[in-house]
UniProtKB/TrEMBL annotation, chains A, B:
It holds the Pfam family PDH_N. It comes from the Bacteria. Gene3D superfamilies: 6-phosphogluconate dehydrogenase C-terminal like domain (1.10.3660.10), NAD(P)-binding Rossmann-like Domain (3.40.50.720). InterPro entries: 6-PGluconate_DH-like_C_sf, NAD(P)-bd_dom_sf, PDH_C, PDH_N, Preph/Arog_dehydrog, Prephen_DH. GO terms for biological process: tyrosine biosynthetic process. It comes from Bifidobacterium pseudolongum PV8-2. GO terms for molecular function: NAD+ binding; prephenate dehydrogenase (NAD+) activity; prephenate dehydrogenase (NADP+) activity. The keyword Oxidoreductase applies. This is Prephenate dehydrogenase. Belongs to the prephenate/arogenate dehydrogenase family. Residues 13-298 form the Prephenate/arogenate dehydrogenase domain. Keywords: Oxidoreductase.
Length: 346, 346
């Protein structure tokens, strides 16, 4: 029987969480406070006392968690532990009862591992676009999911009903929105907006520490430097793992970024006014997009909604094209209709 | 007669402000609220009504402002207007009564212009390490000076007493701290922590808008992308001007950054685990430095102060070495002694 949240919203799921770190812990707390039934297992028991106090049912072993047959089992463990965890889950999980998903920032690799474990059919990829430079249960904070957008990902084996199921958890349990795209598109986009920038940010602090006047530079650093290097303060091992998991996409983007910087350096050397001007104006559609979001958030611009019809035969391309049009799904209104918030394209 | 601030702190100066934009406006409001006598001129009169209401004396012309003989005249105008403004000031300013300073982010170029106008002797370079992506009087906010650090800069013509005078305005009028360095060191450090990163941030948004899946990428973008591209939302003309003013230093750093990114891309291609690990650990001293600052701000680490003795004969190197040791001057305790906050070096 589904749990009922305090505000009367029906939480559609019993959710199992593997790993109570920054993301898993925050997710567990948020879903629990929305009234969902939440079970969890963590490789060390230190979060259990606090977690149990707010009604999260903590299991002694991963096996026990899977045997409890949650509607959705969310893998929030580090990627390095994934193969072993999948091997443990494989013989116990009942695909008829449980849908498997995860929160990893690289989808292709997780899919391969799930496929290798032979449990692809019950799997839906998921990536919440949130997080911060902290980690672990002590950093868990349900607020990191405020207004978060999720990417759900599919391949040719994915079952449509499982997408709708995980989407329900996101829109109803978390009050978040989502897009649905294929793994490859996700991993390329994620390398652009997160993995490659993490490398750039790290290169910036390396540039500083290599400078003979590094202490003066560090003293003078203010807002722009602080913001651009914040993600380089993240646990370097975690960043490294994330980048290596998506290394092919990151490599391509780093070379393109290096070319952009070199071309601009050439323009400065040559005092090429036209090239310099072009460099500073070519991203204007993105600035306009951000201004639109700011206007929406301040209530100056009305939010535009659209109804998305998802055809049973070609739901993959329906979702993908919707995402490309700048639409965020806010809820499913029926099995094949969704309400989406529409933003201007860039 | 010096004005007395509400809290009883003596504001040592009558300050003239040229230009009531983001920095000049914020500075005028903050100094006024600290009890300083503040006069101002702006090339357009639209800020005058609000400014006058809080006791800022607004002058109809730049000439009138200079003729009022403020103790310190602070040029907060855009750099493009600097030659004309200096030409206007030159025949009127009384160097015996008024010290000239500015707030520009590039010191070498302003010094050249001041030198060309023949008023080097009364000039001290200054650069408050603050600001944001907004601009103009409507964006002015005295809070941008909370805990700000200033760089004061000198060349071989600078008079020591004027350094102490402007420093007094910063430490007593603004409750800010400062370091004192030469123009070249400043401009190299500023290009590292601000001008070059502005170019990198702009290159990131250009990379996104050039991507076929740019809308999906924009949808998925979250905290790391937002922080790393915030400064690229700045008025591109202002950023462009700032970068071009310091083009030689920026060019060198961009080529070094491009090399770093390319080398790391090579390491990813070659799966060179050692090189990848080195890349993610070489900036560790900076992470430790940031942790130190966080501990200090949360009160976990005590602030360490040191007394700096400045010798009349070699004050330039005394200040420069102090800055290199990671010391921020918080106040002058006598004409040749300063109290400085000491931070660990990186």
């Amino acid at each position: 029987m589904p749990a009922i949240a305090a505000d009367g919203i029906e939480c559609p799921q019993h959710v199992g969480i593997v790993g109570l770190g920054l993301i898993g812990g925050s997710l567990a707390v948020r879903l629990r406070s929305a009234g969902c039934a939440v079970s969890a297992w963590n490789h060390r028991a230190h979060p259990y006392e606090t977690a149990a106090r707010i009604g999260i049912e903590c299991k002694d072993t991963l096996e026990e968690l899977v045997e409890a047959q949650p509607d959705v089992l969310v893998l929030c463990n580090p990627l390095v532990a994934m193969p072993k965890i999948l091997q443990t889950i494989k013989p116990i999980i009942d695909p008829a009862r449980t849908t498997l998903t995860d929160v990893g920032s690289v989808k292709g690799l997780v899919r391969e591992q799930v496929h290798a474990a032979g449990i692809t059919d019950c799997y839906v990829g998921a990536h919440p676009m949130t997080g911060n430079e902290r980690s672990g249960w002590t950093a868990a904070n349900p607020g990191i999911f405020d207004n978060a957008l999720w990417a759900l990902t599919y391949d040719e084996h994915t079952e449509y009903r499982r997408i709708v199921q995980v989407a329900g958890l996101i829109t109803r349990g978390l009050q978040n929105s989502l897009i649905v795209i294929d793994d490859e598109t996700h991993d390329r986009a994620a390398s652009l907006i997160s993995h490659m920038p993490h490398v750039v940010s790290t290169a910036l602090i390396n540039q500083m520490t290599a400078d003979p006047d590094r202490n003066i530079a560090a003293e003078l650093s203010a807002g722009s430097w602080r913001d651009m290097t914040r993600v380089a303060l993240t646990d370097p091992d975690r960043t490294c793992a994330m980048v290596v998991e998506n290394s092919q996409n990151v490599e391509v983007l780093l070379r393109q970024m290096a070319s952009r910087l070199t071309e601009f350096a050439d323009a400065l050397r040559d005092d090429d006014v036209a090239a310099i001007h072009r460099f500073f104006t070519e991203g204007q559609t993105y600035r306009d997009f951000k201004q639109h979001l700011a206007n929406r958030n301040s209530g100056e611009t009305e939010t535009v909604f659209t109804t998305l019809r998802i055809h049973p035969e070609h739901w993959r391309s329906d979702f993908l094209e919707s995402a490309k049009r700048g639409e965020y799904i806010v809820r499913f209104t029926s099995g094949h209709h969704a309400l989406a918030e529409r933003h201007p394209t860039i």
